[in-house]
Model the fold of this input.
Amino acid sequence: MGLRDALSTSDSADTTQPGWARLREMLAEFSKQRAALGFTPTETATFVMSFKEPLFERLRREYADDPAALAESTWEATEILDQLGLYTVEIYTKTRESVILRQQQELLELSTPVVELWTGILALPLIGTLDSSRTQVVMQNLLEAIVAREADLAIIDITGVPTVDTLVAQHLLKTVAAARLMGADCIISGIRPQIAQTIIHLGVDLGAVITKATLADAFRLALKKKNLSIGAR
Amino acid sequence: MDRIPLLKIGDFLLVTVQVDMHDRLAVALQDDLTERIVSTRARGVLIDISALDIVDSFIGRMLGNIAGMARILDAETVVVGMQPSVAITLVELGLSLPGIRTALNIDRGMELLKAAREETGASASDGREAD
Amino acid sequence: MTVEKQTELPLKAQEDVVSARQLVRSWAVELGLNLVDQTKIITAASELARNAVIYGGGGLVRLEILLDTGKRGMRLTFEDRGPGILDIERAMSDGYTTGNGLGLGLGGAKRLSHEFFIESKPGAGTRISIVRWKS
Done:
């Protein structure tokens, strides 16, 4: 087993040494597989540490006449298997973290789609609380969409956003400024009374940014700017 | 020294900036444009920066200078094709390119220039349209 | 904190500013910075490199890849033996919002970086360092 190889290529009980690399790799794979199968980290670690019993049995027989050597090698074996067991727990934790991270990414992408309302008119309906990093990603997506769909009008609707703090307000304004530099105009719609109050209290200057109470109003304005109108048949 | 080519499209001049310019080249561009606006009686300038992934303060000033000089020569300037990361960086930098119109692409830029011409009422008899 | 990799580039002529931008770009791509972060550091480098050439009488830029606990980043240090900056505070505050009187671009470079360090004495040259960490 890999344990024997590792022991023969390293002379210390420190499992972080290079000689242990292959065994650590095997255990990492093993830990990930077990995690995928639904085993708890304790179960996996316990499995690794269960090697102690047969190992100690073997050592007892080998060193039957030398209690000092037996004690020393038993201690070394314990150290090694403990480290390896803990290593599987570490890998488990890291794997869980990367799954969570990936899910967060997917959630981010799902929850902020950019919608084309009409040729050259985009809408970005934001839903839920906005934190600084999410806002930045969302805003970048909007700017990319402006280029990709050749839209010179973008409506950022925040009806579904319960609160806005200074940082988020600043990101919104920076996005509007960036869009302007690129040649597109933004309308911010869906500003609820509470958010309007927050904006005043925070002293954020909306400047020349056009705001509308509802997405519908913003859409009407967008059509007007493009000299379009919707008529009845 | 290589110079950035200028293209005449109808009444307008089109500049496509594709190289990472050093300062001398940028200054040469300004000079060339000024000269060509006069010699071709261009009514508008389109600067396509879609290939630029960096716009620093020097380029920003160059664009501002071009727009200013063009206006004195009765030509409007539109900058087109700014990349999103460039726009975001300019906003962080605090550079706002005042007095410069922008559009998403060359087509939109042309539309903007034509509309601007109509607004200012292109006079038919300003003595310069001799040929 | 360790320096994983480093190199120096002279900044004597305008073409060197372009070379500096290109080198910073390739290191930024290698470091794995996202597009916006790449743009920010290259733009800041362009400002500071130009300053070194035009106001500093020429100098150099040192590029370093840093490794700190759990994070990697890039540090750029611009050095020149020029006249130095008399009033650093004022130089920093002359950002582009005021129409860029001194043209130093320092405030801008600071806004585009995670860390900014400046040391300058009249007659003793200038040293400016900026850092951007990979997020």
